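queue> holo job accepted (PRP)
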Amino acid sequence: MVNVALPKGRLGEKVYGMFERAGFDCPSIREPGRKLIFENLEKGIRFFWVKPSDVAIYVERGAADIGVAGKDILLEYQPEVYELLDLKTGICRMAVAAKSTFRDDRSKTLRVATKFANIARQYYSGQCRDIDIIHLNGSIELAPILGLSDVIVDIVETGATLKENDLIPFETITPISARLIANQVSYKFKGDIISAIAAGLKGQVKDL
Ligand code: PRP
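queue> job finished
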């Protein structure tokens, strides 16, 4: 049995479609309800829905053999997992944004609001920029508007959230997409089936 952690939500549903088309389907997952675990005994595959930011934890600790996590989570938490494939879906970018009136004064500490403290720290240390991280859990866009921070480091997908809150993306830190990840021990002992799944999914990846 291969245990697969999928991110709950729109991305997870898209990614499950890729598994299905690759021949690793589990029809019961399509039934409406609040169940979290689904298995197809015949195919030897079990899926479970996990909060997107938790997928890497399940995979790192072996509760799941493989999973699908955003590159943002992998960069932020650096879990000890193998990254097998860029699924080229869930595409967005990690960016620095601020009010249009913002002008950086390098003589002052830059106040950065973010959920991604490690990504922000690494980015600004590469620029030798002195920063103060303000760690928030959501609605990051509020911080510069209310004067809590100078800039934000956050995910930008369509740009609509920034636009509707009168913020401007200033710099792109890195592109982000969903990745297939594997537990390091599982990859050794269930290598055949994991490789077959990765190859099947690779056939579903749309080249950009
Ligand atoms: C992310 C991010 C932005 C928004 C960007 O939040 O924090 O708020 O998406 O998307 P857009 O560029 O298409 O407007 P998410 O929806 O993941 O919710 P969260 O704040 O709970 O992380």
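queue> The pocket of PRP is lined by residues 138, 140, 154-161 (CB under 6 Å).
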